[in-house]
């Protein structure tokens, strides 16, 4: 883990008590972008998947504002987070997605061998 990732994880766990938290640091995929030239930080682009009861009865924009408020310092800091992609769900929404993903994968029926 890295300092920004550690800070995000700590803040999200303390404030939202998530049932699922996934943090992906995609910074290396974006380091060549013009906006990143001269930036020494290796922690600029993140994807977060968060499932929490705290999101219940809130629309996506409100959920995202909650996360932005938690990560205000990391977003405002020079050389801090430049891009943040969020997937915010309730635990029930997360469960439904898991069931749907398993159903879409289907059942393995055969292997095809090319000769």
Overview of the structural elements:
The protein has 115 residues and is of the alpha+beta class. Helices cover 39% and strands 17% of the residues. It has four helices and three strands, in the order αββααβα. The chain has helices spanning 3-16, 60-70, 72-76, 91-105, and strands spanning 20-25, 45-51, 83-89. It has a three-stranded mixed beta sheet. The longest helix is centred in the last third of the chain and has 15 residues, at 91-105. Mean pLDDT is 83; it is low at 32-37.
Q: Strand content of the residues, in percent?
A: 15-25%
Protein structure class: alpha+beta
- Gross morphology: globular
Largest sheet: 3 strands, mixed
Helix percent band: 25-40%
Number of separate helices: 4
Q: Runs with pLDDT <50, length 5+?
A: 32-37
Overall number of strands: 3
**Strand order of the biggest β-sheet:** 1-2-3
* Average predicted confidence as pLDDT: 83
Question: What is the distance, rounded to the nearest whole angstrom, between the alpha carbons of the first and last residues?
Answer: 44 Å
Helix and strand sequence: HEEHHEH
Rg over CA atoms: 18 Å
SSE order and pairing:
Elements: H1 3-16, E1 20-25, E2 45-51, H2 60-70, H3 72-76, E3 83-89, H4 91-105
Parallel strand pairs: 2-3
Antiparallel strand pairs: 1-2
What brief labels describe this structure?
3 strands, globular, 39% helix, three-stranded mixed sheet, alpha+beta, 4 helices
